[in-house]
Write a structure and sequence with these properties.
It comes from Streptomyces sp. SID7499. By secondary structure, the chain is mostly helical. The protein contains 6 helices and no strands.
Length: about 150
């Protein structure tokens, strides 16, 4: 039974990695101008400084790598929230992350006159942390401390 489970997991991992590789190739090839796969391959292995190679190495590869890192980070964050609450359906809204971030950005715009998106980020981060802390402290009250059920409710 365990060898069957292991085979299934390895097969799933192989399919996931294959899908990621296809998505990476498509992400690098597709943009405002569709580039042929041979041009993409040349730009990655032996760039010659042409406009299409500069576009691939200067923007599309960075965009793709950033997308992979952000996606993996969001997946880990979701898994941590689900593990913390012991709820497979939990999301950041359960712990007050979304509400705290939204409130802080709204406050920054209304009170401090923040208008640029890059100025929103610190407020959103602090608001998310404070929102999560408030939910955690509220769940900590009473006997038994912060249980997953209290965090969820």
């Amino acid at each position: 039974r365990s060898s069957r489970r292991r085979t299934r997991r390895l097969l799933g991992l192989g399919v996931a990695v294959g899908t990621l590789l296809v998505a990476v190739v498509l992400s690098v090839a597709i943009g405002s101008a569709l580039l042929p796969l041979d041009v993409v391959w040349q730009a990655l292995t032996a760039p010659d400084g042409s406009a299409s190679h500069a576009t691939i190495s200067g923007a599309r590869v960075d965009r793709t790598l950033l997308g992979i890192v952000v996606g993996a980070s969001l997946g880990v964050a979701g898994a941590l929230i689900q593990a913390l609450t012991r709820n497979p359906l939990a999301d950041p809204g359960v712990l007050g992350v979304n509400a705290g971030a939204s409130f802080a950005v709204t406050l920054a715009v209304a009170v401090f006159g923040v208008t640029r998106i890059d100025q929103y980020l610190p407020f959103a981060f602090v608001g998310a942390v404070v929102g999560s802390a408030v939910v955690y402290l509220a769940a900590s009250g009473g006997r038994g401390g912060p249980t997953p059920l209290r965090l969820t409710l």
